[in-house]
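stuck on whats below:

***
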Amino acid sequence: MKKTKTPEENLEWNGYTIDELRYKRALTTARLDIQKERLLNQVNAVKGSFGMLEGRGIVGKMLRSLNYIDYAVLAFQAVGRIRALLVSRKRK
């Protein structure tokens, strides 16, 4: 099998032609664009899984419309229900 010489070993090598450089540049740009699209798709997939908590989802819209007093009332009610559950379990 014939071994090909590297540019350092081949003294006759004069570098890349302008067409070869353009081709390599276009190939690299295409690879970068493909990777960008893949990353954007992955980010959108992750964002889509949390869509219910964002402003677009129903829960996000409901939470955004509440003020501090509403949060306090909800927390008080949640603590009351949890306490009632704990007390009923202790009785059994």
Observations:
- The mean pLDDT is 79.
- Helices lie at 18-49, 58-65, 68-91.
- Residues 52-92 form one domain.
- The radius of gyration is 31 Å.
